[in-house]
Amino acid sequence: MRKYLPEIAIGLVPVLIVFLIFIGQNVVPVLMLGALGFVVFYAARGRGKMTAMTGQQRRPGTKAEPFSFEQIGGQERAKQELIEALDFLVKQEQIAKLGIRPLKGILLAGPPGTGKTLLAKAAAHYTDSIYLAASGSEFVEMYVGVGAGRIRDLFKEARTKANKAKKSSAVIFIDEIEVIGGKRDGGQQREYDQTLNQLLTEMDGIHANESPRILLIAATNRKEMLDSALLRPGRFDRHISVDLPDKKGRLHILNIHANNKPIAEDVHLERIASESFGFSGAQLESVMNEAAIYALRENTDKITENHLSMAIDKVMMGEKTDRESSKEERERVALHELGHAIMAEIVRPGSVSQVALSPRGQALGYVRHNPLQDQYLYTESFLNGQIMIALGGAAAEEMFYGGRSTGSKNDFEQSMSIVKTLVESGLTDLGIIDASMMTKEAWANINRTILDKLMSRTKETLEAKREVFASSLETLLREETLSGDEFRHLLNADTAA
Ligand code: ATP
Fold this sequence. Notes:
alpha/beta, Rossmann fold, Helicase, Ruva Protein, domain 3, 5-stranded parallel beta sheet, 3-stranded antiparallel beta sheet, about 60% helix, binds adenosine-5'-triphosphate
């Protein structure tokens, strides 16, 4: 009964109003009083909810274990730049003597999971500050002014907590800053504007000689979206980019997360580091964790290289699915994947690390490539090679079945995106052009020209390898996976023959 009290009260209101009208009373003052009460009640509720929520969200941040820069893998340049900036806070007296204006904000920009939050925590530890964390989305509210109020509260809370803990500084970390700090268009976004203005006002209020000193660290994946008012000198004027780790960084991160795990002696983490090109720190942490789960499932007390290899597949492609497919379908998928793998070994010998026929995520089979070294610049012939590897699957299906299937959709998308890169980099016959001026027809033409040419080259190359398809198909259907070495053995046996 008590549970339904609000509903009963709401139901009684119209009955009461109708009754008052019926007996000839003037209901306007009552209605106005009611409306006022409603507004006050909801404003109070909104604020109460806000303090409860931000308090709860930040609590773990404040009590977090001390986190140092040594516990962050890779990111050497970002760490160095950050430490240099933090020295402004550490060497306050020297800074004041020289009349240098205080550093107020540091912006960390980079893809998700690269360790931006970890860097902010380590910054708090390095400067012996209180650490408070919030996310941009916490400040987004329907009611004008609520977000701005939360910003004010956040700064107040930082000062109070620092005073209570007798610390001379506080680090406030705001993740997803683009949510509140996006470019202002002067139009509809009044609530966002007020929140951003409040943040700018709070930042302008930070002074060199105040105690506790506040340092704002913000993180974003989309720096280009930020309002220029946030980025101007005196606000977030230190920009540090936090990129995906290179091979050395990946090895460092893997080692950090392997620290509390029993790893078999013959595991080469270096190999895992090279196979995980393009992985973020968060994905590498996940690889280590998933590998430990595989070890648990198999009831072994050490994590083996096989567990780690399965974990890479899982993080890259998703969990294995139970999809049952017919013998014909399995055979088609196997030939398709072998098409990719043979092309990959021809274009870049030694690059295939696994061919698999087990369904994972959306894929029915896959080839895992092992980039021989990290690469950030690509030539035209390298990109053409990538397209031929992508087209290898469809070419193989055409060779053996006389036609293709829907299984090549992603391969074509990938090929077209490489064509786009070629065009935009001035690496096609079109020369150096402004790709944004190209018509749809021009795009269709260039795609057709490049893809047709590379498709026939791919088919020609694969035709010469029919024997390899035959010898590997049987093993792949039986074993479901072929390691890179096994596959190369079959390929080389054919070449020798
Ligand atoms: P987002 O942009 O999505 O908020 P982020 O860049 O802030 O991500 P973090 O929250 O710092 O990423 O990292 C997530 C997790 O990934 C960490 O808790 C840690 O386990 C792992 N991780 C990420 N980068 C590193 C790194 N450089 N060294 C060690 N661990 C890392």
